[in-house]
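Example record used in the benchmark description.
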Amino acid sequence: MQVWKQLSIYTSESSRSGTRPLHTAIVATALEQGLYSAIAMEAIEGFGPQMAIPTTNRMALASDSPIEVRILDEPDAINNFLASQKDLLVGCIIVLSEVEVFWAPAT
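Model output (structure tokens):
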């Protein structure tokens, strides 16, 4: 078992970093920095401080689904990522948790 950190970043489908979706920019940056794992997930519905209740109802004319990006790595790597990405993460809700990581080696 190892104690790592899980970084959860909450944003929305309409949030942008330049011309690309913010969640795409976050995952790409995590990959560029060599972090262990990153995943972006679209939520069915939810709300945050700057939005109403967005939904993934594709029939709606203006959908702004909530997005959660989770990044997992050793504490120093997560701390360095956060320090280097302050400008990118403006307006996001950021949650940092310690997690216990278990895995079985391939046989």
